[in-house]
Amino acid sequence: TRDDLSSMNPNYLEFKFPLIKSHPWTKVFRSRTSAEATDWIGKLLQYNPKSRPTGLQSCMHPLFDPLREQGATICGSKPLPEFLFWFSEEEMALMDDAARKKLIPEWVSLEQGGAWQSRSRHSAAAKVRAG
Fold this sequence. Notes:
Elements: H1 2-8, H2 25-29, H3 35-44, H4 55-59, E1 73-74, E2 78-79, E3 85-87, H5 89-94, H6 97-103, E4 113-115, H7 116-130
Parallel strand pairs: 3-4
Antiparallel strand pairs: 1-2
């Protein structure tokens, strides 16, 4: 649309793009791609940058729900990285309660998830108590 073009580059409003019939993502990716993956890609590949999800919104997409399941593995056997659920202070500040609950599963302990600084403080406090 004209608004999409303007959001990408307001200097090219007069450029006449050829009319090309759009194809649904399901036809582009065929049956080998899950509905969740097709949906996520469609949301990422928006002309208008303001219509695209943020990084945290992308992480909350249902495509990534299996990574939040306890015992999830990569390629069927490798454990997930221990820092998968660690977030920066800035990222934590951008999350509301619903986002935190979605991005940091209940089974993840403070040592495994949450803000980097909080995790470091908690680990340091545990070492002081133990020492």
